[in-house]
Amino acid sequence: MTLGGDAYQRTRLRRLRRAELPVDAVELARYLIGKVVIHDVAAGRLSGRIVETEAYPIGDPAGHAYSGKTPRNGSLFLTRGHAYVYFVYGSSFMLNVTSEVRGVGGGVLLRAIEPLEGIDLMQRSRAVTRLTDLARGPGRLAEAMQVNLEQDGLDLCAAGPLWLAAATQKARAIGKSARIGLTRNVARQWRFYERGNPYVSGPKKLRE
DNA sequence: TATGCGATATTCT
DNA sequence: GAATATCGCATAG
């Protein structure tokens, strides 16, 4: 399942172009499963295969864009393929990919990745040794990938340190469920994940 | 494995 | 004051 080490190194990463991204949060959330997110930092390259996402589409009461543009959520209104990073619960950063046209708020929360490169660096910043706990959950993902407010608003489709790449291996079956940890608009099935992947967050029932 | 709870800071009412 | 797109630790089964 894991395409680690040599097999991965032999696969050249191809940067995703903005034109390839669907212009819709729900479609983009499904599309991003299996794609790769990369953060090039001074110490090396951090990368991981996206295995879990959540969509926060236009008009969603649970979405941060719902009440209009503010200093906090401004980058959520950038054209699709930009990073929207914010801080919650006094402890965690969340990394989102914007999904709509410029001026319209909508995005996809990256909830979990399967670490590929820079695993030693991730373990250092997370102070965790278990591979499956490294980036399983949005807060952990951001910490492992060294993402914080400095990356808010970055263009993930331009030449830069934080970017998206095409899949290096075919994704398995994609499951969907209700989103996790929110109280508004709970019923909608806007969470997507790769079935059976051990790096997906949530209870067992939400990983099958 | 599942459930419960406290910590923490920014935003919203 | 209350809520929050969460995490890590504790405890029980």
Q: Which CATH class applies here?
A: Alpha Beta
Q: Helix count, per DSSP? A: 4
> Could you state the CATH homologous superfamily?
Methylpurine-DNA glycosylase (MPG)
Q: What coarse outline follows from CA principal-axis ratios? A: globular
Structural class: alpha+beta
**Percent of residues in helices:** 10-25%
Low confidence ranges: none
> Strand fraction band?
25-35%
> Could you give the order of the helices and strands?
HHEEEEEHHEEE
Terminus-to-terminus distance? 15 Å
Predict the CATH topology: 3-methyladenine DNA Glycosylase, Chain A
List the keywords.
208 residues, alpha+beta, eight-stranded antiparallel sheet, 13% helix, 26% strand, DNA-binding
Polypeptide structure, described:
The protein has a single domain, classed as Roll (3-methyladenine DNA Glycosylase, Chain A). It has four helices and eight strands. The chain has helices spanning 5-10, 25-31, 119-126, 138-144; strands at 36-41, 44-56, 83-88, 92-98, 107-117, 162-165, 174-177, 191-194. Strands 1, 2, 3, 4, 5, 6, 7 and 8 form an eight-stranded antiparallel sheet that branches. A hairpin with a 2-residue loop joins strand 1 (36-41) and strand 2 (44-56). The longest helix is centred in the middle third of the chain and has 8 residues, at 119-126. The radius of gyration is 16 Å and the shape is globular. The model has no long low-confidence stretch (mean pLDDT 94). It binds a DNA duplex (13 and 13 nucleotides) through strand 3, strand 4 and helix 4.
